[in-house]
Amino acid sequence: MTDIAGTVATTLIVMIFAFLGVNTVQGVVKRRQLLAAMAANRARFFRNGIVSVTCLLVAGSLAVALHPDLTAADVGWRLPEGNWSDYLYSGYVLVMLLAVYLRTRRGPLAPATAALLPRTTGERWLAGGMSVAFGVGEEFLYRGLFLAVGTELVGLPLSVAAILGWVFFVVAHAYQGWRGMIMVGVLGLIFTMLYLSSMSLLLPMVVHTLWDAVVLLAVRPRPAAVVETPAVVEEQAPVVVEAPVVVEAPAVIDRPRLRSAAPD
What we know:
Rce1/LyrA-like_dom, 0% strand
């Protein structure tokens, strides 16, 4: 039974990371189409994201439960150690949240951010659900499960597994463009440091969820500025209507006939 459970667990883990890899490649290759699909139907994108990440979270948790060489503690399902650095990092990220929120209220938004921002009440509810699903699910996948598989099953050093998980996490957000990837890279580095300092997923999940909620719910979409161009009135040449020239005939003057003065 142990061998069967281990095989099933290994198969689930391979399928999870294969699915993430395919999605990452599609995000790189079909970035413009993905952004257009997001903007056209945000509610569908939110629902698909919630369902996909939740299914991956359940499958990954099942794989950990079945695999004989993995435990819940290995993937970070435990309370943090309570080191003061954990809370320092958390406070730093919260300050960044406030700074980004204030900046995005004034500056221009990245195309990916603008496409993701909900417009209706229904979309906001779905965006809030996706914030929780992605905050919990992505931390479990890219931090907890990735590092546990890398160190416990593959035999990688913890630092190497952490770097690979961080790179995988950043590239998975390639659809957001270089500007978005830089921000995701900074955030992923902080999330990784939070996890490594506490060996718990609790703080990274909470901070990640708060970040997504601020970006999706606190930042309001702004209508695109419409630049009004003055109407160009084409000057048309005056239309000259040539009237026919009427030439009047000279008037005929009836002159009285002169009679001869000579006598008959």
